[in-house]
Amino acid sequence: MAVLRNVVPQSRLSPAYRPLRPRRAAPTDLDDDPSLPPRDTLRWLKLATAVIEQSSRERPADAVLRQHLRDAGRLSNEEAAQTSQAVFGYFRWRGWLDASLKIESQIRSALELTAEFAMNPQTFRDADLLARTLPAWVNDSLPVNAAWLRTIQAEATLWLRVRPGRAKALSQVLGHTRTCPLLDALAYGGEEDLFRRPEFHAGDFEIQDVASQAVGVLCAAKPGETWWDACAGEGGKTLHLSAQMQGKGMIWASDRAEWRLKKLKQRTARAKCFNYRAILWGGGAKLPTKTRFDGVLLDAPCSGLGTWQRNPHARWTSTPEDVRELATVQTQLLNHVAPSVKPGGKLIYSVCTLTRAETEGVAAMFQAAHPEFTPLPMPNPFQTHKPPQPQQCLWPQGTGGGGMFIAGWRRSG
Ligand SMILES: C[S@@+](CC[C@H](N)C(=O)[O-])C[C@H]1O[C@@H](n2cnc3c(N)ncnc32)[C@H](O)[C@@H]1O
Fold this sequence. Notes:
It is a single chain. This protein is of the alpha/beta class. Helix content is 37%, strand content 15%. Mean pLDDT is 91; it is low at 1-31.
């Protein structure tokens, strides 16, 4: 069970809040190690091969993996962890592998690359990383750079968002943590299944990527305000806004997916977050309420390039058409939520992607159509010495987690 946390559902367009992080090193010299059982007993390798073969755009690898691990019967934690690492290692290094070989051989090569990159990253030349790590279309969509690729080829960090003021105490209890410029964020490097910790069940912390936490930080909701979290999903940011508001004021949390709102309700109950109202909203011009809000957060569906470190399968299933279509959806959603911002209120747009079309492109389209909104300068939460800007493009190499784009406006009085 402990390893199942590494294989949580991650839909292609809305990466979930839990990272994928196989933790145990898998053997790489499978043929040479006499201490290993004969190859036909390497169940994890067979399982990983089946998962890779069955994964597709419609069936993301993490979902297929979870199903296989569930159906596999008596699988040791180690085998399950090895299977995860093999699957994600394969997709992370897929562009480096010889596709004419059997999948099993490619998995072995991917695991060797994983180990080599962890130990000697300098032996990987920038030029090779740039040429082989991602599909070619990505170069036309954003300024691909070696620092980003070096970050996403390494294992992802697990981030916690801690109840305000509790970071030091929690860090002492859990151990294996490190802090970052975001006050309530802790990176966790231990082996424990955090979902079993009493502190988790008491709502002392959430698993939330540090880049997602940056969105909440820039919303800066205050006690007593009213907010609309328009694409609330499973409630990662609703919970953050509620913590900022100290439970005072009201948050409308909407999504078009009922099952996501169901999960949101489970999470809010555990976190003892009560100042919210969950409601279905399909993104159309007909709004779920006539309320005018102090703040509206649109954490929009996106191509998710900012999550490609922990979700490497998506690198090979996303397309430039997705980016184009999503940019249209994002612009529509922004246009639809804008009238709900009260004069003097804030509108925050965020996407966990870095493509020009879905970030600065959408922001420019919105600005052109809405002169009643003025760009709102916001600090870069990871580089607070820099002057505030109305758009923050946060790359994974700068956050230590995922990538995120955040734009802010204030509605004129
Ligand atoms: C990036 S995810 C939101 C993540 C969430 N804010 C969180 O922090 O956990 C985007 C969400 O938008 C929802 N969505 C997609 N298309 C939508 C639409 N047209 N109208 C409303 N919600 C939509 C998806 O169901 C998904 O939950």
